[in-house]
Amino acid sequence: MSKRDFYNVLGVSKTASDKEIKKAYKKLAMQYHPDKNPDDAAAEAKFKEIKEAYEVLTNKEKRQQYDQFGHAAFDKSGFGGQGHQGQGFGGFEDIFGGAFNQQSQGFGGGFGGFEDIFSQARSGRGQARPRKGQDIEFTLTVDFIDAVKGAEKVVELPLNGEQKKINVKIPAGISDGEKIRFAGKGSAGMGGGPAGDMLLIIAIRPHAFLEREGNDLICNINVDMVTAALGGEAEVNVIDNRFKLKIPAGTQTGRKFKMTGKGVTSRKGQTGDLLVKVFVETPTNLTEKQRSLLEQFKAA
């Protein structure tokens, strides 16, 4: 079965900004997330389709390729063609981004060409002094939960002209944009110098109903209108914690309930708070009896 257009999947135009794409993704992901639809195969398939569209359209290089060639841009085997398919590496679909291509342009298509430039300079000048090899960077996209709790993964990267498997330990509490350094895994040194380093820049995939602000963890929950008005309890499910939250009578949309010290612990050991943010649901498709009761309430 042919794939649907990624823009149609997210319900955005082809000129949509990253902000608009992210907003559309979060809305749809929250609706079809497996946690919200247990044992629903159709919802799970829909969620995977939404996730794949998001990861292509928020990656500048992949979006350009998709706009030019459509789904055919990712049909070929190899590093470029497997970027968003995630074959063999779980949630690391767009693990490499465009960093590798940027590093290789202008150097003969690979890191070997970089050495050739200096080999020319050495001729007639004697032995060149040792130089450290060039640092290389890749973008590693990880799931929100893996970034909060930490995880260990094996990823395959193109290093010095060949594919190599690297064990990556994702530290618990790592933030979006932080880097993990691998000493000596970069380009080879010149003149007997040490190899450069490899840097993995962490990009965190948005969660359907969890957000992070600094070290504070924000959980968005829906509360029905009656519970919000009269008070009651709501179930909260945050990563590995599940508990009942007391909802005071008269609770409004946007109200936050803070649980001190239950947020994210950063790499520096600093722990934030858990903020449960309430969204009051307005009922739809009322029965005649329900409508009548609301009319009586309005009149009172």
Automatic annotation (TrEMBL):
Instruction: Spell out the Pfam families in the cross-references.
Output: DnaJ (PF00226), DnaJ_C (PF01556)
Q: Which residues form a coiled coil?
A: none
Enumerate the SMART domains for this protein. Answer: DnaJ
Family annotation (Gene3D superfamilies) = DnaJ domain, Urease metallochaperone UreE, N-terminal domain
| Keywords carried by this UniProt record | Chaperone
**Domain J: from-to ranges:** 5-70
InterPro entries in alphabetical order = DnaJ_C, DnaJ_domain, DnaJ_domain_CS, HSP40/DnaJ_pept-bd, J_dom_sf
Is Endoplasmic reticulum one of the keywords? no
What the entry lists under PANTHER family is as follows: DNAJ HOMOLOG 1, MITOCHONDRIAL-RELATED
Record-given protein name: Chaperone protein DnaJ
Please name the gene that encodes this protein: dnaJ_1
